[in-house]
Amino acid sequence: MEIVISILGYLVLLTALISMQVKKMEYLVIFQCVSNALVVAQYLLRGEVTAMGICTLGTVFTLVAFFYNRLDKKVPVYLTAVFAFLGVAVTLVIALVKNSFNPLSDIVPLLAWIVFTVAMMQSKSWIARALMTTNSLLWLTHNIVNFDLSLIITYSVLVLFALVGIIRLDRREWRSLFVKEKE
């Protein structure tokens, strides 16, 4: 079972790395969807119900974002709010059913979920890439606390490659935020 869990973790890495290196938001969303589905399977096998529930929502929301993107429309803010609320509801229901609440195991995935929903509603890949870096940092924290070497490696590499993607693809956008143009 541990081998399957590790393989899933490395497949998450591969698909998420690809998502951070594409320029078009549409491709970013497709690869994020595949990555989320793989991590759902891994958390299911590990018995991490809250993380699995949050990632399941992530997969569904990514599909919704993909279809809106295909129609050249932004995901409506109200729909993003509904999904964010569903993340809170999933976290609370699972904590009640388990009759336990662990802030690091339950809150960190929820925070990652909120960052993810905001990232997926972006029309600009450079903003989504920055938010996905934050998302990866949160999941890295979660997987350090709930030790899983494959996902620690996965999210460490994701943070590194997301930063490379930001530097490689988004320098101009970030520079324009911080450097005042000469008149």
Describe the protein in words.
- The protein has 183 residues and is mainly α.
- The protein has helices at residues 2-20, 25-46, 49-70, 77-98, 103-120, 125-145, 149-178.
- It is globular and about 50 Å long.
- The model has no long low-confidence stretch (mean pLDDT 86).
What does the average pLDDT come to?
Answer: 86
Question: How many DSSP helices?
Answer: 7
Q: Could you give the count of β-strands?
A: 0
What's the Cα radius of gyration?
A: 16 Å
List the helices and strands in order: HHHHHHH
Low-confidence stretches: none
Shape: globular
Assembly type? single chain
Q: Could you tell me the strand content as a percent range? A: under 5%
Tag the structure with descriptive keywords:
183 residues, single chain, mainly alpha, 7 helices, globular
Short recap of the structure:
The chain is about 85% helix and about 0% strand. The protein is mostly helical and about 180 residues long.
